[in-house]
Amino acid sequence: MCGIVGYIGDKEVTSVLIEGLSRLEYRGYDSAGIAVYDNNDLHVRKFKGRLNVLADHLKEETLTGVVGIGHTRWATHGEPSDRNAHPHTNVAGNIAVIHNGIIENYMKIKEWLVEEKGIEFKSDTDTEVIAHLIDCYYEGDLLEAVYKAIRRMEGAYAIGVICKEEPDKIVAVRKDSPLIVGLGEGENFIASDIPALLKYTRKMHLIENDEVVLLTKKEVKIFNDLGQQMDREVFNVTWDAEAAEKEGYEHFMIKEIHEQPKGVSETLLRRLDKEEKVTLDGIKLTKEDLDNINKVYIVACGTAYHAGLVGRYAIEKFAKIPVEVDVASEFRYRDPFVDDKTLFIAISQSGETLDTLAALREAKRKGARVLSVVNVVGSSVARESDDVFYTWAGPEIAVASTKAYTTQLVAMYLVALHMASVKGTITEEQYKEKVNELKTMPDKIQKILDNQTKIQHLADGQFNNEKVFFMGRGLDVHVAHEGSLKLKEISYINSFAIAAGELKHGTIALIEDGTLVVALATQDHLYDKMLSNIQEVRARGAFVVGVAKEGNKEIEKTADVVLYIPDTLDQLTPILSVIPLQLLSYYIAVARGCDVDKPKNLAKSVTVE
Ligand code: M6R
């Protein structure tokens, strides 16, 4: 989604803005622009395309200001183009605005601006109304004009505003779209995401919903929606900027695939005490709390939703509480049955996914206790939850989620085991067996990664397929869905996931000579059934890649190629079986020449509906 950066201080502003925006490129965008105050005027430069189009243009001229705002746009209202790129200005060009999110009532405001004020619009965006609205209310005080403007705006937004008449300040607002402030010595920053500012500062203020910020080079003032000044602690970012670099890998995605042993180990070992008991510091659920809960909802989007499906299995199996799993965009609008006996679990890598956040708020409103599994410390989902379990995956930059997924799986197993242990629904022996097996996961993932050459060769032979099916039974179906999502989002191949038992109810009609079918067969009690399903698709000409546990060699008689994962408990296979699927998707996308880290039409953090 869009990225925001703003700077006020003594440094040459264009390079700070370009540097900051380059750190946000991973979010996905289609145009980029800046507005800077220089030589007693505001100068706006904005272009369709990658950030380097803007950067190259700036090399040819000298803009030497010390205050400015910059933006990478992911088109929602209006096609990607120079004129729709941000910043947007008022008619006189003395107020410039950058904006993430959507102004839902922009048509109504636009009509008013056109009919009552005679304003001619220069773009097709919703954002442009903000610049004109602020202009309408401007009487020499930018902060006051912004307040008046936002009172008329509905929707989700983070905005940054500068004004030619008050070049010593930036005003920013957050409503349902992430915004942080970076604190420097004699300089201050705004951004939509922490990596944008790490080169300059590790001291941040996390801005809350409905807050308005006034920045000068010397100070930062935060106000609530009533205009009252708020105190805010300094948030120190502890992770390294280097963690967000490629470190010699060709893409972030393959780097992040290889970081999974470390991420899984961190997520796990930080939660095991000396007695190897799971201690979840951020989770304060007591036995009494858990006894009061009669239903769990797990809600998330995309890959995080797939982790939720495995989480349902683990909680029902170990803690014996009924669980429903839902995608956030459906949950929030279907008036789900939630009350104070419901535990709502939100799963989100970014912690900023708008649908997940809205679903969380809906569940809270109805009285549910909210637990979140989140990767980004201090993110909105984390801050609005009663209990938080941080996955320790480190920053995930590639749009396709990999290490976030495996660490979310570990988190869900630990949450389930913790609940089971507190409720007493699992024996000490069973508990130990699972914890001990979880501890072997980092080495087992590493073993799969060490043998990836076979998968590379397979990808070289299969990258031309335009249709791929993933199938499995039991827990394998959930991994099939994740494998299919991974492949389609980065390679643009039409891929589908199906419960293998459903084949004969329709989908088998699509199998023809050469169709690639990835068949997961890791569940011992369903192994023979899967072998039959493999026979069925092979009989129709499919080329079958099986995924099975080491030692289960029978599958070699039916599948064309078999990718083995190290032996483990059936209940834990998803942590391993997804790894070959991630690698296969990655190498297929590379062979097809796709932009693996930034697939078309996608954004890393989906902060609009
Ligand atoms: O940040 P979140 O975990 O809330 O994001 C959820 C989805 O947008 C995300 O998992 C998406 O599906 C990924 N592109 C999948 O690789």
From TrEMBL:
Q: Where is it localised?
A: Cytoplasm
Q: Which reaction does it catalyse?
A: D-fructose 6-phosphate + L-glutamine = D-glucosamine 6-phosphate + L-glutamate
Is the Transferase keyword given for this protein? yes
**Would you name any one GO CC term?**
cytosol
Q: Name one GO biological process term.
A: UDP-N-acetylglucosamine metabolic process
Identify the EC number(s). 2.6.1.16
Spell out where the chain crosses the membrane.
none
Keywords assigned by UniProt, alphabetized = Aminotransferase, Cytoplasm, Glutamine amidotransferase, Repeat, Transferase
The chain positions of domain Glutamine amidotransferase type-2 read 2-218
User: Where, by residue number, is the active site?
Assistant: 2 (nucleophile), 604 (for fru-6p isomerization activity)
- Classify the main location: cytoplasm
Q: Which SUPFAM superfamilies does this entry report, sorted A to Z?
A: N-terminal nucleophile aminohydrolases (Ntn hydrolases) (SSF56235), SIS domain (SSF53697)
Start and end residues of each SIS domain: 286-425, 454-599
What does the subunit section of this Swiss-Prot or TrEMBL entry state?
Homodimer.
This chain's function reads:
Catalyzes the first step in hexosamine metabolism, converting fructose-6P into glucosamine-6P using glutamine as a nitrogen source.
Protein name as catalogued = Glutamine--fructose-6-phosphate aminotransferase [isomerizing]
What is the species of this protein? Alkaliphilus pronyensis
